[in-house]
């Protein structure tokens, strides 16, 4: 076979291969779907895909997210579950709003939302201030001399041993809030030695601020000379310098006192103890208010100055300091850590088993 014949044969083979390729149907490339045969264009098909809503997640009635073993999947499903619940709640809210607008004046009254406060477990010791028994007890308790205007409050404020600067400043600012209060340094004296000296000098209260790691964490309030003595846990202390939008320094005017939500026998005693810290006749010219607000057995203290802008609007400016108290124990008589008789002690594991039961 000569060279010319080989070239001809090779060319014919390439020609045959080209013919075979032309006869085959072209397959679509990977990643690209063919257009639909119902006459839709490519843009219409893409638009239809974007308009499609994602499928809603419907959980079975006995479904529990905690059954999912995978942590990431469990977290994702929990978020989806919360999102679905939120959508249902918003839809129901909009539906009720439309119904109320349609009914107008004939619409039923709004439902009161459920809170821990209005779902509170009834306490048998809840008192009525007008009850004869309560009035008799108030006339013979340790604070009766103050409420009968026989004594004027005089308070000694001191600290634990070797107080730090922040605790000292806290005591000094408390002295500006409570009239006729005096700050003395402890100097290592035991409270059993301090109390007789306070009684001899005519003090009606001993207030001790305790600290731990430079943070105020406790308050002992002892009514003199016969008690009782209350021990509080102190938290969320903010001095005037640490507060935003604070007002000017408080004046020497006697403030008004507001006591909120002290409804039980124990709460009534604590409220009377706080009330007897301040003199009877407040100076309304100073426009200063000291508030003890009890909510879920936490006592929030705030100190404000108010101003009447017009007949309906009142402006309030916080002066500080602010702090939160939690009652730990109430002891009969003056402070005695060894032989003292306790009227009430907070036992966390027994008393905090129900979130809707409060003691003040």
From TrEMBL:
Region: Disordered, residue numbers: 1-62, 90-124
Phosphoprotein found in the keyword field: no
Brix domain segment(s): 153-336
Domain of life: Eukaryota
Sequence ranges of Basic residues compositional bias: 17-35
Signal peptide interval: none
Cellular compartments annotated: Nucleus, Nucleolus
InterPro entries: Brix (IPR007109), IMP4/RPF1 (IPR044281)
Keyword rRNA processing: yes
Record Pfam families: Brix
Biased composition (Basic and acidic residues): 1-16, 36-56, 100-114
Keywords on record: Ribosome biogenesis, rRNA processing
Function: May be required for ribosome biogenesis.
Designated name of the protein: Ribosome production factor 1
